[in-house]
């Protein structure tokens, strides 16, 4: 293994550990003490804690071990390697943190919102580090292999069953709060993986595309890509310019375009992550 690969592996492992720790904190601070079972193995463990008094972390670990063994046998060591660290450490962190972290709030709305934010941030960091927290991910992967249904549908079905169980145990109101947590966590996971909106992509259609491209490159010092385009109605061929700029440069970009061609057609759209010259480096 090269030095670069070793460094990358260490960083990914640290990211997985930190993400698991953050997820565990969200469960201990917000979800478990307020009996918000927002799907997944942690949701099942919260239900079991209510019914039988089992510690949440140990219940998660007890469910995780057979799932991990089954997924390793069925899906191979590659899947197991990505799953092992997060799946093992998350339940351990939950039980380690429980004696020291007091519930942050007893307000169900706040608990569901911030529980979603914190657990979503942790899981998003794990995913960004090329890891997994295991649990229902493993069960979904197994069912996908043997049943053939899409992973997203399987995960949605499993989480739905967990929330249905929470409805029977905790009542409808807490199940509704659990749905809020699921929604918020999903949005935060996407945000962590894709990044906060940091740039804008502009598509520019004009009869003066060469002049506009030259002005963007010289006045904004931004690159421009010229794409071949053709009007579906007119049949006229034109160049479509693509340029990615920072949010603070959008006004200047529009000024450059409309000074050159007031009739230009411009589409500006959000970009969550840009890798390359002038923006972030790939890691």
Automatic annotation (TrEMBL):
Keywords: Cell membrane, Membrane, Transmembrane, Transmembrane helix. It holds the Pfam family DUF2179. Residues 222-276 form the DUF2179 domain. It comes from the Bacteria. It is found in: Cell membrane. It comes from Carboxydocella sporoproducens DSM 16521. The keyword Transmembrane applies. This is Uncharacterized membrane-anchored protein YitT, contains DUF161 and DUF2179 domains. GO terms for cellular component: plasma membrane. It is a multi-pass membrane protein. CDD domains: YitT_C (cd16380). The chain crosses the membrane at residues 9-30, 36-53, 65-88, 108-127, 147-169. The lineage of its organism: Bacteria, Bacillati, Bacillota, Clostridia, Eubacteriales. The keyword Hydrolase does not apply. Gene3D superfamilies: 3.30.70.120.
